[in-house]
Amino acid sequence: MKEENVIISKGLTKRFGGFTAVDAITFEVKKGEIFGFLGANGAGKTTAMKMLIGISNPTGGEAMVAGFDVHTQQDAIKKNIGYMSQKFALYDDLTVAENITFYGGIYGLSRKQIREKRTKLIETLGLGEIAHQLVGSLPLGWKQKLAFSVAMLHDPQIVFLDEPTGGVDPITRRQFWEMIYKAADEGTTIFVTTHYMDEAEYCHRVSIMVAGKIEALDTPKKLKEQFEVSSMNDVFLRLARNIE
Amino acid sequence: MKRFLGFVRKEFYHIFRDKRSLFILFGMPVAQILLFGFAITNEINNVDIAVLNQSKDVNTQEITQKIDASKYFTIKRFLTSEKEIEEAFKKGDIKAVINFEKDFSEHLIKEGQGSIQILTDATDPNTASAITNYISSIIQSYQQQQNQGVQMDYQIHPEVRMVYNPELKSVFMFVPGVMTIILMLVSAMMTSISITREKELGTMEILLVSPLSSFQVIVGKVVPYIFLSMINAAIIIFLGITVFKMPIAGNLILLGLESVLFIITSLALGILISTMVKTQQTAMMISLMGLMLPVILLSGFIFPISSMPAPLQVISNIVPAKWFITIAKGIMLKGVGLGYLWKETLILIGMTVFFIALSIKKYKIRLE
Amino acid sequence: MGILVENISKSYKNVAAVKDISFEVKPGELYGLIGPDGAGKTTLFRILTTLLVADKGQAKVAGYDVVQDYKNIRHSVGYMPGRFSLYQDLTIEENLNFFATIFGTSIEENYDLIKDVYEQIEPFKNRRAGKLSGGMKQKLALSCALIHKPKVLFLDEPTTGVDPVSRKEFWEMLKRLQQKDITILVSTPYMDEAALCDRIALIQEGKILEIDSPEAIVKKFPKKIYDIYASNMYGLLTALKDFEHAHSVFPFGEFVHYTDKREGFDSNELKIYLENKNLQDVSISLTEPDIEDVFMELSRK
């Protein structure tokens, strides 16, 4: 894990009228890190992420993602990152292969590249005949793994995952995280938001957002020591109580 | 460019794999063209008329036969006296009366002139003009036939009277028609999304797991809208009278009551749609497309039903709006009372009961 | 007044959602149905609350048959479905009033029962339900389900999508409710919540894996389980999976939970193997399994 910072945020802020959704957050993410962006629903995680991936304009502060400015170089950011959201990742009424081809095209890959990657992906995930089934007919776990792979199709430097593992069984969830580990091991930086506190433990470092502010930022181990508890869930509970 | 094409290709997949969009693309235009093509016509066909022949002589018989023979008119009845004319129009089954004066042929030969009166029900001014014109031209051609080659010996000038709407104001047709459409659409649309909304939001589950019966839910959803729609109806009538100067020849209270009845019929239809459909979007589409077009085309609002092909005429009978327009025009323009309108009123009541009963039956007491 | 489920099966369009499920909830029990999305929990709840009819099997709730006597059940159970099902454009008080009225009671009549839950949101009683936070919606939905003093309470994933603080408070409320003699059937995908129930049924892909009290289930775990640590998680996982005697290898936070195929084995041997794979800071220690370990072991078969 190199020491270079791929995400740098300084006082990043987003206001909607009188309401401040993201309140001057400052942090850095190193290359190859698995960075967990935690917080309750409504704490501002998704809003913050949207600014980092270049689809929302910040109201204040600065940030650099993959070396590009979030205010002025949003297009470059989009080209250099991968994104997977829980609400949507793949088209249900397209087959697996068609989805891969489509996204490959969107990311600007050549036909040859798309073909190669498609074959490789189908092989790695062991899809076989499923490649020609409509995505809508696949179980949730498969959809998630597929969505992640598609987000990585163009070998981006950073992959942003927004609540990627809702609802699946414990084994599938871990298989998904193993895919994340592998990607991180190979140098991709992973920025993941989740409200599953136990998944926080899989991250190298985590930040916890409460009401738009970052109230804690460290490795899971150090946070547990700091709050004298044994799980990240309890860290969150203590933190919430302290803030009240 | 490649990205763009990739994106376009994906859009094609979506379109062809979604049955609904295919239906809209191909199914609906075909249905609409057929419907529009047959229903929209300013021509008249087989219009029912009555003849009062006070002469019963050669000429009048010949003219009568000629009119009867034409495809435009069907002589439904022969009246026996002028007193019967008003009654005939009130009854509403004939759209025009041709009144031949006494001793028509005699006058024709002796004085060179014969009088024919054409009285037309002008509650539908467009059709009325057409009817009058066609009858006049038939009479004209008869006249020319008789006068062939010879200097015009005699002339027949039909005297035209537009009954109920002497100035042929289109607003007289317009206001009752618009009122019908607005009441039907608003009522049906509102209730059609009512149950589907509960399904979509998930509150339907809670309603089902409760002591509420299907009857209570269905009727409970109709009742609030009755009051609101009544206000709507009152506003329209008020505007019709004040701004458009529509006369109300008949009983205003009767009009109010019949309006309430029609509102309930429409609300019930909306609820029926609501029980059968899963999403609010579909409910709205069906109310809008599925109800608006038939109501506008087949209710007799603009286009005369009698001019449409037989199948469409049959279908028009199940459009509640058709019956209400007859009622509304009858009360507003002709001043008739329940005595003449009991059949239509009964039909509306029957439809309402049918819709509500069917809704209760179709209201799913379980989730699948 | 309990729940009896006998050989219930239900399929949708060729997909079997619930496969031959049987279990029993004793009166006054706090019973948990534990499993991920798609396990069949919601389908089962809908069958028991009479919203769906099973393809096969019987069930009784509070002594009433779910098919024949469905009306009785609908009059006497409290149901909190997965989406909380509140009227977004009505206020807290209006929602509660509505549910009280259609059950033929009033807020005052059973206030004691809901007081514990309701007084936390009562200060906001004129706020519309649509504008409430997840935790508040949860409390309102629970109040609405309780207001008519049901004998049996069905809570379908009441803590999904809600912050950890509210989750914790919710379960504390449930424990207090249990003392008022209400039978409670809760479904949840959170394994840590399972430990708070009297008994649990682990459910996966429409089948029951195991039924017992949380403590007993954990005791039944057939193998010894080890916490293994190394500074490179990915490297550790790969190495362990390559180990010929590995039975299960699962990441669990900063450790990996490892079970071995053999009955007894020398952890030192494993340590040496791992260090030979160039892993740093290797440590191996015996640990206690939790419900998630049991679930994964059972669902592997």
Automatic annotation (TrEMBL), chain A:
MF terms (GO), sorted A to Z: ATP binding; ATP hydrolysis activity
UniProt xrefs under CDD domains: ABC_subfamily_A
Domain of life of the source: Bacteria
ABC transporter domain: residues covered: 1-236
UniProtKB keywords: ATP-binding, Nucleotide-binding
InterPro entries linked: AAA+_ATPase (IPR003593), ABC_transporter-like_ATP-bd (IPR003439), P-loop_NTPase (IPR027417)
PANTHER family on file: ABC TRANSPORTER G FAMILY MEMBER 20 ISOFORM X1, ATP-BINDING CASSETTE, SUB-FAMILY H, MEMBER 1
UniProt protein name: ABC-2 type transport system ATP-binding protein
Species for this entry: Sphingobacterium wenxiniae
Phylogenetic placement of the source organism: Bacteria, Pseudomonadati, Bacteroidota, Sphingobacteriia, Sphingobacteriales
TrEMBL record, chain C:
CDD domains given in the database record: ABC_DR_subfamily_A (cd03230)
Domain ABC transporter as annotated: residue spans: 3-230
Nucleotide-binding among keywords: yes
UniProt keyword Nucleotide-binding present: yes
Coiled coil: none
SMART domains associated with the record: AAA (SM00382)
A molecular function (GO) term: ATP hydrolysis activity
SUPFAM superfamilies the UniProt entry points to: P-loop containing nucleoside triphosphate hydrolases
Keywords: ATP-binding, Nucleotide-binding
Superkingdom field: Bacteria
UniProt-recorded name of the protein: ABC-type multidrug transport system, ATPase component
Higher taxonomy: Bacteria, Pseudomonadati, Bacteroidota, Sphingobacteriia, Sphingobacteriales
